[in-house]
């Protein structure tokens, strides 16, 4: 058991989940201001090994394990998070204007399944504030995840949505190593299905082309098992050469094919989408289909239930270029990153595979 699991988690889990998250983030931000703390964290949590090095959408990364969007929405803790052993960080989702998100409570733990139910509705401080914070130095590549401003009074309509993404892109891309577009925040009630009409995706990408996309662009898709839809999405991306890859978002609500041990009726009371092990198989099935469509033409970033080296390895074998995690950190703390990376090395050795690049 790590120090986090034995001493920190019990204290944090006494607090409301969002409060605990804010506290963790504030502590990381504070720790990140101190050279001493950053160096100590770097020594404790980093594992470097050439067999883990790879590239993500053309960016060299020290390992394929990244921090998923949502943990540090406003880039408050980039300096500290860069010392926790991740190969890259994805901050956001950030929108053009600041947003308060959904009413509280909007974050819940499901400890029986080591899961989180999230209904944040993308609260964030807006692109300009985040831009200022991203001037700070960083140790690993930082992707910035963009979303349309969540404003229930101004639900998604055509050009307004495209202008919102374009404004964020213009404000943030020169401070980002890659840009991810969150195309389906499962918790922005008015907006979550906007891109179901795929002509809108084409229109969005055309608008961003006018704004000049100067960083690798990753499309974080609403999850679907429909191979036809995935093929259409990839065909649209093919028409916009600045698209470098895809990621898969959480599904909205609690689809029947998520894997729970906890009783479903207790879950249905919690509003929001599920992160953590219950979504692992669901996301992996989509990842496999997406890989069969894209081949090696696109980077694939896969998150969903990565809490062990085996889970990360499975995603890499299915074709992920990089894997990300969020919920695992809540249950296992920062030592999880190194634990997964050393587990990945052991799995490569077991299978006689030279390095992670040979997996996807
Ligand atoms: C509390 C929470 C907040 C999240 N916020 C965002 C977000 O703002 N933007 C986004 O693209 N994904 C967001 N996600 C999704 C994660 O980036 C990730 O895709 C998902 O949680 C699956 O990984 P996990 O099972 O390791 O948590 C969020 C997830 C959680 C649990």
TrEMBL record:
UniProt domain Dihydroorotate dehydrogenase catalytic: residue ranges: 52-348
Keyword Flavoprotein: yes
Cofactor(s) required, per the database record: FMN
Xref: Gene3D superfamilies: Aldolase class I
A GO molecular function held by the record: dihydroorotate dehydrogenase (quinone) activity
Database matches in CDD domains: DHOD_2_like
Pathway: Pyrimidine metabolism; UMP biosynthesis via de novo pathway
UniProt-listed InterPro entries: Aldolase_TIM, DHO_dehydrogenase, Dihydroorotate_DH_2, Dihydroorotate_DH_cat
Keywords, sorted A to Z: Flavoprotein, FMN, Membrane, Oxidoreductase, Pyrimidine biosynthesis
PANTHER family: DIHYDROOROTATE DEHYDROGENASE (QUINONE), MITOCHONDRIAL, DIHYDROOROTATE DEHYDROGENASE (QUINONE), MITOCHONDRIAL-RELATED
Name of the molecule in the record: Dihydroorotate dehydrogenase (quinone)
Organism, scientific name: Solirubrobacter deserti
């Amino acid at each position: 058991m790590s120090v986090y699991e034995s001493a920190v988690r019990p204290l944090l889990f006494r607090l409301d989940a969002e409060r605990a998250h804010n506290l963790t983030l504030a502590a990381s931000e504070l720790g990140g201001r101190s050279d001493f703390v950053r160096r100590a964290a770097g020594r404790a949590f980093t594992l470097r090994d050439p067999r883990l090095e790879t590239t993500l959408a053309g960016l060299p990364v020290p390992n394929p394990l990244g921090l998923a969007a949502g943990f540090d929405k406003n880039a408050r803790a980039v300096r500290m998070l860069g010392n926790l052993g991740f190969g890259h960080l994805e901050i956001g989702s950030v929108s053009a204007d600041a947003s308060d998100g959904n009413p509280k409570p909007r974050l819940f733990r499901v400890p029986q399944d080591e899961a989180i139910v999230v209904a944040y509705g993308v609260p964030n401080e807006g692109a300009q504030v985040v831009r200022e914070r991203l001037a700070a130095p960083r140790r690993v590549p930082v992707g910035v995840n963009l979303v349309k401003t969540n404003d229930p009074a101004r639900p998604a309509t055509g050009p307004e949505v495209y202008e919102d993404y374009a404004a964020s892109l213009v404000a943030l891309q020169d401070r980002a190593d890659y840009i991810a577009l969150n195309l389906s925040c499962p918790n922005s009630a008015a907006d979550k299905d906007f891109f179901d009409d795929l002509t809108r995706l084409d229109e969005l990408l055309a608008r961003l082309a006018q704004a000049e996309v100067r960083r690798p662009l990753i499309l974080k898709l609403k999850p679907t098992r429909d191979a036809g839809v995935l093929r259409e999405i990839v065909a649209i991306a093919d028409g916009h050469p600045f698209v470098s890859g895809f990621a898969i978002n959480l599904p909205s609500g609690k689809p029947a094919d998520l894997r729970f041990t906890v009783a479903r009726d207790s879950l249905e009371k919690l509003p929001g989408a599920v992160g953590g092990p219950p979504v692992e198989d669901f996301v992996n099935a989509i990842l496999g289909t997406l890989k069969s469509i894209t081949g090696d033409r696109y980077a694939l970033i896969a998150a969903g239930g990565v809490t062990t080296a085996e889970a990360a390895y499975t995603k890499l074998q299915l074709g992920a270029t990089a894997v990300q995690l969020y919920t695992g950190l809540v249950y296992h703390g920062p030592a999880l990153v190194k634990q997964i990376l050393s587990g990945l090395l052991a799995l490569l050795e077991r299978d006689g595979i030279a390095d992670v690049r040979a997996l996807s």
